[in-house]
């Protein structure tokens, strides 16, 4: 299988899928973490953003896959946005829950020492929220890989999800199993990477 399954090399399938998932994941972090922090600190932000997030969160990505195709076409954007939409809600809810874990006494003490609102967020609230944010990252990347197969149904010609789906149509069981194992291995490696970073960034988690 020198040319790879469906005429695309195996490592190209891996690379394309990894770019899609981690591109969507990084976008969800950039959007979701600040949004979750804002929702945790501001009743107004929570009132505006909480209803739409809670409304779409239980909907399976396959349900709004046709809308992604209609609105954004069949190029990479629709695939990345579909994965992004599945990762965003866990990131927002994790950051919001993390803000709530900040001790009100610490916040009041920081203000009493003359800290600005930004300093309170950066030095008190964000460190307290980090354990929940890291947990949300681990959950979110799992949702991202789960959604990958659905995203690569959108006229894809490469990617692990596409490879698995194409192999299943031709009853290529070894290829299907290999694709599943590779997806699981990448997700597992990332989970351990996040755990490693978490131990360095928030070493106090789970103590006391």
Keywords:
mainly alpha; 80% helix; MetI-like fold; 208 residues; elongated
Explain how this protein is built:
With 208 residues, the protein is mostly helical. It is 80% helix and 0% strand. The chain has 8 helices and no strands. The radius of gyration is 20 Å and the shape is elongated. The model has no long low-confidence stretch (mean pLDDT 83).
**Please, how many domains?**
1
| Share of β-strand residues | under 5%
Radius of gyration: 20 Å
Any idea what the shape is? elongated
**What is the mean predicted local confidence, pLDDT?**
83
Q: Spell out the helices and strands N to C.
A: HHHHHHHH
Number of strands: 0
Largest sheet data: none
**Count of helical segments?**
8
- The CATH superfamily title: MetI-like
| CATH C-level | Mainly Alpha
End-to-end gap: 55 Å
Low-confidence stretches: none
CATH A-level architecture: Orthogonal Bundle
Q: What is the SS-derived class?
A: mainly alpha
